[in-house]
User: What shape does this take?
Amino acid sequence: MANRITINTDLTSGTINRNIYGHFSEHLGRCIYEGIWVGEDSPIPNTNGIRNDVVAALKQLNIPVLRWPGGCFADEYHWKDGIGPRESRKRMINTHWGGVVENNHFGTHEFLMLCEMLECEPYISGNVGSGTVQEMSEWVEYMTFEGVSPMADLRRENGREEPWNVKYFGVGNENWGCGGNMRPEYYADLYRRYQTYVRNYGENKIHKIACGPNVDDYRWMEVVMREAHGMMDSISLHYYTIPGANWSEKGAATGFSEDEWYSTLKKALWMDELITRHSTIMDKYDPSKRIGLIVDEWGTWFDVEPGTNPGFLYQQNTIRDALVAGVTLHIFHDHCDRVQMANIAQVINVLQSVILTEGEKMLLTPTYHVFDMYKVHQGADLLTTAIESQDYAHNNEKIPQVSVSASKNAEGRIHISLCNLDNDAAADVEIDLRGLAGLGVAVSGTELTASIKDAHNTFDQPEAVKPTAYHAFTVNGSTISAKLSPMSVTVLELISE
Ligand code: AHR
Assistant: This one.
């Protein structure tokens, strides 16, 4: 039986904020060092120390915003250790992540240079857990003040005359956990205090982001919103998809069972309920939805690859991850009235990465390809869509087999993304396009799929999973009939005729 989809091509229900396609980079494992920063003397081709291959691959994704320096690392990071001549920068222990020595060679100047290369907005996470108000305030002054001041002068001494534009600033990270183990009442008071000194200098207007809840901690959301909603522009939410029952049995990134395939996708879909319920609490204090919900850490979290440093969180990335990315991005689209940004964790070599590296080698993961295929939705108008999906049943449970999202861009092009969550059965879909201006549509498509459920790219076979042209559809007037391959992500492009 067909999955029936109705798309109102003339009815939009909001704009998909392009920041939903944001990324996250932390001083963790091989994300920054090797993944991004190799240093000017490296044999790996680089520009001012930053890998050229990685910059080119990320530019292709039109990445809108990049979060840094953590994560848990942020609340132990003291920014002044990461400025000035690199040889004399302080070395510290990265206590959270593997106990390795952090030489601070990648600091504020290097990060903001990376953002300039990527043409994306920087999103800086400030240190509330172990940093002072003065330290946070001076960081903002250092980066954004144009005139004469101690921090602006110091920036000039370090070679940067003009201030940078820094729009997004997080006041703490996971302050309910690694960022200080605080109660929401205490954090809310600290937030009010710290954010006071996060100043706007000149033209630079900072979007202040409060630390929001872990997963379904609705009390945290309630208290922080109640106490501080008038002093924030956004509040964060963190939710990771783990297939296993708990953090000590997360499950492997490859070689997993059918049960784990199913539970991963089922748990990814939980994001919808989390956003709905947090947003309902936010509505109480912010009915006009001025405040954004920023899902600044999301993605799959599996057991680390055997033989790798457990503190480095390095995991492979399969077609299962591609489906997690596809359905999660659809959920963010559906909540575009509230979700203003999201940052998948993490961009390179850590958790659900879009890029993996091994020395000078680099590969693009299945998740990368979803971000590439879906970039057409960035900044587009979300079209109202209804679906009657068949079930994907497993044991005595079921989830919808098909997930869909559709948008129309400024040129009037319509893009429909479709995920078939079932790794065994194809899905017949019938798409009824209502409200088309012309007589019909010209349709083209791209598909990402695989023949085994843990298909992934390796440094020997970097293109085992990659998008291909998709032709398994027919168009009859305003109806598209398509057959989605098992475990697939498909994007259709429609041009009105
Ligand atoms: O992304 C890895 C870690 O997960 C981050 O450092 C932290 O914020 C979260 O717990």
Q: What stands out?
A: The longest helix spans residues 258-285. The chain has two domains: 3-9+383-496, 18-378. Residues 3-9+383-496 form a domain with the Immunoglobulin-like fold (CATH 2.60.40.1180). The two ends are 30 Å apart (CA to CA).
